[in-house]
Specification:
This protein is an alpha/beta fold. About 50% of the residues lie in helices and about 15% in strands. Strands 2-3-1-4-5 form a five-stranded parallel sheet, with helices on both faces. The protein starts with a strand and ends with a helix. One of its GO terms (cellular component) is cytosol.
Length: about 180
């Protein structure tokens, strides 16, 4: 049964998945049962079924996903307008047996509202410089990078802001997060 949710957000190419991996490894090394999921995974899985697309390819950072990104965002918004927590519930349902679940891709106020109201949680924003993001392959796409899916949490008050800057040591920040989570279990 899920005891704690770490809800992570950040801009494209900020390093959300990398930081998720580090937090997961740190918690697991201390004997915590931990899983990582993405809200977008449940969205992409359903989108792929409906449109007869390759789900595995939609999970990559490649051109296949980019080809469908704008339409997936619109489709996801329509689904959320009917039930704002539909993809959050699906993500958690897939890892219900873990004590701690790291949700690697929160993008909306409603995502945080769901996790904060249903679980003990910690909200984290992964931040990186625009230069670092560009080094990681970021290119601004109108209609994507200025949409709610990228900007909806820009003014949110996060519990933790994790600075993921190239060449900077992440270990102290990861250990602080791990300590906070263990103290709350």
């Amino acid at each position: 049964m899920v005891k704690f949710v770490i809800a992570i957000s950040g801009k494209r190419k900020s390093g959300k998945d990398y930081c998720t991996k580090l937090i997961k490894e740190s918690l697991a090394s201390k004997g915590v049962s931990v899983s990582a999921v993405g809200i977008s995974h449940s969205l992409k899985e359903e989108y792929a079924k409906i449109h007869d697309l390759n789900f595995a390819e939609l999970l990559t950072d490649g051109p296949y996903k980019e080809k469908y990104r704008k339409d997936m965002i619109l489709w996801g918004e329509e689904a959320r307008n009917k039930d704002f927590a539909v993809f959050c519930r699906a993500a958690i349902k897939s890892v219900i047996d873990s004590d701690v679940v790291i949700v690697s891709d929160c993008r909306r106020l409603t995502d945080y509202a769901y996790f904060n109201s249903n679980f003990n949680s910690l909200t984290i924003r992964v931040e990186s410089s625009e230069e670092n993001r560009k080094e990681r392959g970021f290119r601004f796409v109108e209609g994507v990078d200025d949409a709610e899916s990228e900007c909806g949490l820009d003014n949110y008050k996060f519990d933790v802001v994790l600075k993921n800057l190239t060449g900077e040591e992440l270990a102290p920040q990861i250990e602080a997060i791990t300590g906070t989570v263990i103290n709350k279990l």
